[in-house]
């Protein structure tokens, strides 16, 4: 007796096997549907596709839709046990990329039932999963996502948002200024706290742990938190202003990360920090929920983003990472400056800045926005203009990002400033 005969009822075997023929068939026969009318509840994706030589563009687009949803490399008998037409992704439009040889934008629609509510992790596991290693494609890049309001409503989003942060700080009508302590590695906790005090006492609103600072032998996290809290409260007392230091809670485990966030709250610190790409979306969402419940602001760093988003034909654009962060949760995130040492195009940068901050953003291909995005009631995220600016460059940033609430130049102390 075969395994199939032993474990299947006669009724099930009849339904699954009638008319079934195994083997490989072209993806476009099932997953390329140019006649499909997208639904308001669909997640829409725009992929930049570079097919291998000899692979038709319709087959390449359909392969992306299939491998990121219900498809696999062959036809299986269990396809007959569900409604693939209900659950499959669909490549519904393909357009050539102007000025690029053999590159196309493939638009894919995903039914909402494919994704767990409130989980960026699950959404990305499907949409940017194994399909990026598919042999039929020379390269693949996710340019943009349209997240439907029905899915947006399953996320908490930022712990507090722009207006609540302004209220907490009691600071309005001007940029918020901050800096990162340098050298980023090697200082003792006491000397680190001294630098924090000098910066806050000198007029800055915030200071920040560098993303590299976690809990190394030269400065354990608990000592750093204690000395930074002492510096923070001393500067507040002397200036009469509310101050903050981004205490980096990023750690090797979620449990350790939460322990650090709890200690920061017990010290009375107003804000903690997390590296959301190296730390992971599950950890980030958990921390964002804790921060809302306990009145902590959450600053987000984006270390590792250039590994994902810098290549123009493979990976994922930062605007997608920015949308994912707004869903997962964070009160501010580094967004580049256009000027300074880090890469960033003006219109494209301003495009994802609006996606972080505004409630409703219209489609605008000139700024790289492929879909209209409605954030409904999800709070906005403060875009942090970051990236080693000199003082002359800082004035350019201030003019360029005038609508933004946060600017970040660097000062002679070799520290980072936020607006």
UniProtKB/TrEMBL annotation:
Domain Ribulose bisphosphate carboxylase large subunit ferrodoxin-like N-terminal, chain residue ranges per copy: 31-151
Required co-factors: Mg(2+)
Alphabetic keyword roster: Calvin cycle, Carbon dioxide fixation, Chloroplast, Disulfide bond, Lyase, Magnesium, Metal-binding, Methylation, Monooxygenase, Oxidoreductase, Photorespiration, Photosynthesis, Plastid
Cross-referenced Gene3D superfamilies: Ribulose bisphosphate carboxylase, large subunit, C-terminal domain, RuBisCO large subunit, N-terminal domain
Gene Ontology cellular component terms for the protein in this record: chloroplast
A GO biological-process term: photorespiration
Compartments where found: Plastid, Chloroplast
SUPFAM superfamilies assigned to the protein according to its UniProt record, in alphabetical order: RuBisCo, C-terminal domain (SSF51649), RuBisCO, large subunit, small (N-terminal) domain (SSF54966)
Main location: plastid
Function recorded in the entry: RuBisCO catalyzes two reactions: the carboxylation of D-ribulose 1,5-bisphosphate, the primary event in carbon dioxide fixation, as well as the oxidative fragmentation of the pentose substrate in the photorespiration process. Both reactions occur simultaneously and in competition at the same active site.
Protein name: Ribulose bisphosphate carboxylase large chain
Organism whose genome encodes this protein: Capsicum annuum
Origin organism lineage: Eukaryota, Viridiplantae, Streptophyta, Embryophyta, Tracheophyta
């Amino acid at each position: 007796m075969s395994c199939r005969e032993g474990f299947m009822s006669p009724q099930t075997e009849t339904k699954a096997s009638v008319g079934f023929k195994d083997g490989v068939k072209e993806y476009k026969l099932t997953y390329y549907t140019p006649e499909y009318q997208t639904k308001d509840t669909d997640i829409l994706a725009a992929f930049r596709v570079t097919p291998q030589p000899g692979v038709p563009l319709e087959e390449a687009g359909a392969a992306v839709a299939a491998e990121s949803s219900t498809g696999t490399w062959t036809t299986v008998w269990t396809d007959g046990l569900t409604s693939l037409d209900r659950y499959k992704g669909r490549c519904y439009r393909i357009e050539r990329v102007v000025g690029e040889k053999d590159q196309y934008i493939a638009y894919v629609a995903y039914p909402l039932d494919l994704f767990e509510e409130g989980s960026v992790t699950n959404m990305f596991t499907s949409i940017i999963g194994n399909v990026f290693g598919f042999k039929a494609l020379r390269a693949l890049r996710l340019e943009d996502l349209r997240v439907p309001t029905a899915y947006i409503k399953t996320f908490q989003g930022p712990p507090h948002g722009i207006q609540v942060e302004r209220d907490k700080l009691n600071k309005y009508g001007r940029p918020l200024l901050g800096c990162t302590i340098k050298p980023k590695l090697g200082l003792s906790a006491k000397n680190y706290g001294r630098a924090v005090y000098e910066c806050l006492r000198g007029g800055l609103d915030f200071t920040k742990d560098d993303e590299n600072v976690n809990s190394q032998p030269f400065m354990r996290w608990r000592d750093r938190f204690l000395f930074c809290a002492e510096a923070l409260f001393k500067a507040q007392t002397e200036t009469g202003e509310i101050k903050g230091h981004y205490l980096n809670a990023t750690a090797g485990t979620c449990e350790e990360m939460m322990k650090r966030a709890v200690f920061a709250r017990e010290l009375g610190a107003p804000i903690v920090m997390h590296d959301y790409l190296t730390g992971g979306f599950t950890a980030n969402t958990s921390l964002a929920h804790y921060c809302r419940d306990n009145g902590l602001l959450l600053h987000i760093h984006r270390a590792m983003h250039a590994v994902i988003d810098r290549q123009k034909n493979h990976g994922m654009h930062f605007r997608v990472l920015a949308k994912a962060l707004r869903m997962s949760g964070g009160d501010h995130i580094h967004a580049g400056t256009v000027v300074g040492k880090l890469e960033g195009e003006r219109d494209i940068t301003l495009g994802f800045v609006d996606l972080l901050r505004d409630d409703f953003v219209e489609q605008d291909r000139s700024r790289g926005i492929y879909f209209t995005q409605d954030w409904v009631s999800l709070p906005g995220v403060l875009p942090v203009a970051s990236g080693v600016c000199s003082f002359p460059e800082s004035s350019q940033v201030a003019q360029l990002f005038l609508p933004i609430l946060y600017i970040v130049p660097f000062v002679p102390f070799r520290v980072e400033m936020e607006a």
